[in-house]
Amino acid sequence: MSYTPLLGTMSTSDSLLRAVRDSIAISAEALSAAAAGVHDEFVRAISLLLSGSGRVVVTGVGKSGHIARKIAATFCSIGTPATFLHPVEALHGDLGLCGEGDTAILLSKSGTTAELLRLAPILRQSKLSLIGILGNVESPLAGLMDEVLDATVRRESDPHNLLPTASALAALALGDALAIGLMTAKNFAPHEFSLRHPSGQLGRNLALRVKDVMHTGDAVAWASPGDSVKDLIVAMTRKPLGAACIVDNARRLVGLVTDGDLRRALFNHDDIRPLRAADIMTGRPVTVSPDAALRDALQLMEDRPSPISVLPVSGPDEVTCFGLIRIHDIYQSGSRTAP
Description:
By secondary structure, this protein is an alpha/beta fold. The chain has 14 helices and 12 strands. The chain has helices at 10-36, 40-51, 63-77, 87-90, 114-125, 166-185, 190-195, 201-207, 210-213, 229-238, 259-268, 277-280, 294-302, 327-331, and strands at residues 56-59, 82-84, 103-108, 129-134, 147-150, 215-216, 221-223, 243-247, 253-258, 282-283, 310-314, 321-326. The strands form 3 sheets. Strands 2-1-3-4-5 form a 5-stranded parallel beta sheet, with helices on both faces. It has a 4-stranded mixed beta sheet with strand order 7-8-9-10. A hairpin with a 5-residue loop joins strand 8 (243-247) and strand 9. Helix 1 (10-36) packs parallel to helix 6 (166-185), helix 2 packs across helix 6 and helix 3 runs parallel beside helix 6 (166-185). The longest helix is centred in the first third of the chain and has 27 residues, at 10-36. The N and C termini lie far apart (68 Å). The mean pLDDT is 88.
């Protein structure tokens, strides 16, 4: 079967963009409906998860199976042992994954998935608690569950209401929300997350401290407020970290000069020879503690109207300066231990 592309004219482009925007809007509507449908059954479902002494077994067929795999991975990331169980393979020997004390989460848009209807009574016989994330709360499968979470959607997001798009997104949101509810109930702490993500950027940002990757001593460009801009440029060229710490005689931080400050000075002044560091520095710059997690330093850099890429590192008094940390240091692998 061949298809005739609809690209090439303004009207067809408008139609394509309208379809794409409608798709996103329908998905957003599905998520809003899922949130509005959260009631006491969610609390009861989380209680089932808390009371289970085993693992979380997540299962589904087709696109629901792909979503089930992601939900299982989310539970694992918060320290709750979880696995995906293919319902067909389960009926051919993989039921050995399940045992008393486990909690099963079954995903189905229709609630009539034949493989799940066959599997649910067997899981019940094995003394698992059953939670359904279902697109039809009046379905046969719903009647077999201990708790049902409503993943009903008004329609799918494609023009023909065929592809499991909005329904898959709603099921994923409810599954992740279950994990977040469990995470909240267990007072799951950020450092526990880092233990399970030792090689990922998220885990690294939680596990490492600013002092592990910061630049100190002779690696940093230091200057005093009275230094000329020329001397400042020379110092920053020799120590190319993107900034210079401006300190007084007691090594107390009084300002910061970045590469951007130098460019603005050159742009705004025909003659920079009379300028001093104090004339172009940012006074009382944002600082970070050496004991702060990399995640906190990254938030300080990014959560601003104008993001910054370098921070001075200071002590509890926010005055004594120890050095600099750059956004590049946070994203690079490995670490340096500050002297």
